[in-house]
Specification:
Blueprint lengths: L1 H33 L16 H7 L2 H17 L3 H9 L3 H18 L4 H5 L22
Helix pairs in contact: 1-2, 1-3, 3-5
Length: about 140
């Protein structure tokens, strides 16, 4: 009886997690249209997160793919200045890791380089004013 109960609870947790990550991905796609007024990029199959693997196996590889999409949107959003400033409060190792993930996301999405996005005039960030501590070229 206990084994059936444990298995039942595990399957419920997997279903809840799968619904949650599906909703997150759906919200990401809606954000592109509703806020950014653009069509969501179509990712190559190898760059798309496998949501079932995230829910069932807690696949780190697929979790990273999903988080890269979230990070890429954060830097493209109206609040990118706030997000970039928050990144600067992290440890140098965490900053470097996030910048690397962001660059991977932008490369996978076929978007202009992260350095160009962060240094857009509206953001006020550029390597010349010293606010970009880790240039993308130093992270790859």
């Amino acid at each position: 009886m206990f084994l059936m109960t444990a298995a039942f609870h595990a399957s419920i947790l997997i279903c809840v997690l799968l619904r949650t990550v599906k909703k997150l991905l759906r919200n990401i796609n809606e954000y592109y249209g509703d806020v950014l007024r653009t069509k969501p990029p179509s990712l190559p199959t190898e760059e798309s997160p496998n949501l079932s693997s995230i829910a069932k196996e807690k696949s780190l590889k697929d979790i990273v793919k999903l988080m890269r999409l979230v990070l890429a949107l954060a830097v493209k959003s109206d609040k990118k200045e706030d997000y970039v400033q928050t990144i600067y409060t992290l440890s140098p190792d965490a900053q470097k890791s996030l910048m690397y993930l962001l660059q991977q996301a932008y490369t996978a999405l076929g978007i202009i380089s992260l350095l160009q996005v962060i240094s857009e005039p509206s953001a006020g960030y550029s390597p010349s004013n010293g606010l970009l501590r880790y240039p993308v070229s130093s992270l790859c």
